[in-house]
Amino acid sequence: MVFTGEFFDEDFSEFSFSERIIEQARFTNCSFKGACLGEFRIKNSIFSRCDFRNSRFNASQIENTALLNCDFNGANFFSAEFIDCKMVGSNFYGSSFLGAKIQRGDWSYVNFGGITLKGMDLSGIGLENADFSNCNMQKVNLKKANLQGAIFFGAKTLGLDLRGAIIDGVDFNNFSLREVKVDFAQAAIIVKSLGAIIG
């Protein structure tokens, strides 16, 4: 079954979308609270201000889709795949990304606060002003990501790879640099942010 068209203020709470497809659809202020979206495919669609709290996206594929200012608190993305998605302003507090994959896309102003992203590949992704407060970021690959203004307060950063990433505006005070990989240009930015005077 394929969902298409426009939906406003619809309630899909607890609904099972398993093995279905959403394509070229637009959802505004809709509730998917507790919905089952396992083994589900979303493509070329837009979701704005939708409620996905405690929903399940296990093994789903989300491609070329915008999920803007949506609430994913407590959602499960086990083995889900995001490809070229725009997630600006969405909240992922309390969600699980175990086994999930993210390829490219814009995740600016997203709240990842307190979740585990350990070992994930987030290279090349737009993460401007994203909030990683108290996240487990150990051994996360952030090569060439846009991290301008991102927040890492209280995050576990052991083995984080920042090489080639844009890190302007990142506050490195209270940021553990143990085994964090940086390039020479980034090292200078970090030293300056810590108050040192170079030259």
Topology:
Layout: E1 2-8, E2 21-28, E3 41-43, E4 46-48, E5 61-63, E6 66-68, E7 81-83, E8 101-103, H1 184-193
Parallel strand pairs: 1-2, 2-3, 2-4, 3-5, 4-6, 5-7, 7-8
Structure notes:
The structure is a single chain. With 199 residues, this protein is mainly β. It has two domains: 1-106, E3 ubiquitin-protein ligase SopA (Pectate Lyase C-like); 109-199, E3 ubiquitin-protein ligase SopA (Pectate Lyase C-like, 3 Solenoid). The chain is 5% helix and 17% strand. It contains one helix and eight strands. The protein has one helix spanning 184-193, and strands spanning 2-8, 21-28, 41-43, 46-48, 61-63, 66-68, 81-83, 101-103. Strands 1, 2, 3, 4, 5, 6, 7 and 8 form an eight-stranded parallel sheet that branches. It is elongated. The termini are far apart.
Q: State the low-pLDDT regions, or none.
A: none
- Give me the strand/helix succession: EEEEEEEEH
**CATH structural fold name of the largest domain:** Pectate Lyase C-like
pLDDT average, as an integer? Answer: 93
How many H/I helical runs?
1
What general form does the structure show? elongated
Distance between the termini: 65 Å
Helix-and-strand structural type: mainly beta
Name of the level-1 CATH class of the largest domain: Mainly Beta
**How many structural domains does the protein architecture include?**
2
Describe the sheet with the most strands: 8 strands, parallel
